[in-house]
Amino acid sequence: MASEAEKTFQRFAVLGDSSSSGAEINNKNFSKLCQDCGITDGKTVTSADVDTVFNKVKAKDAGTITFQQFTEAMKELSQKRFKEKSPDQGLQDIYHLMEGKNPATTSGFYQAARAGAVDLLTDNNKYTSSHHERLDDSGKGTAGREETDNSGYGRAHKAAGTYDKKN
């Protein structure tokens, strides 16, 4: 039977990769696991440390690590995170941090962005005064517009239309 740490490892390993068996984890998900489980604390263990350790334990041309390599990485990180403890005790403490953890999905992390920003811009109830009249009920910007003059001169230009005329 898989340990709690191994179950957590598998949950993060398959994150964002439906073809993954959960036996190996990539660097992105490894970093996320360290972040979500509180292994990275920004002081003793930083994201740079996590990347360094990942690259150190993985096979030379591999993009993922196995649970066994993961254990090696965690032993090394535990020495930074829990300096005063033995490697085995530090590893147990890290596994304790991982217990029962699931990948945290922050809004928009793995989901497509919502169209809410566009909705706000085209909701004519939010506009005031003359701008309110520029949008029709469907949010299209046609109602209330005046015809524009494409002559190339500004609206109040005194010499508008005199370019071709000789003095």
- Strands, count: 2
Work out the strand percent: under 5%
CATH class call of one domain? Mainly Alpha
* Average residue pLDDT: 79
Globular, elongated, flat, extended or rod-shaped: what is the shape? elongated
Strand order of the largest sheet: 1-2
Count of individual helical segments: 7
GO molecular function: tubulin binding
Keywords: Cytoplasm
Protein name: EF-hand domain-containing protein
Family: Belongs to the TPPP family.
Question: Overview of this structure, please?
Answer:
- The protein is mainly α.
- Helix content is 41%, strand content 4%.
- The protein has a domain at 4-98: EF-hand (Recoverin, domain 1, Orthogonal Bundle), CATH 1.10.238.
- It has helices at residues 4-13, 27-36, 47-57, 67-81, 87-98, 116-121, 129-132, and strands spanning 24-26, 64-66.
- A two-stranded antiparallel sheet has the order 1-2.
- The longest helix has 15 residues, at 67-81.
- Mean pLDDT is 79; it is low at 107-114.
- It comes from Otolemur garnettii (Small-eared galago).
- Its main location: cytoplasm.
- GO terms for molecular function: tubulin binding.
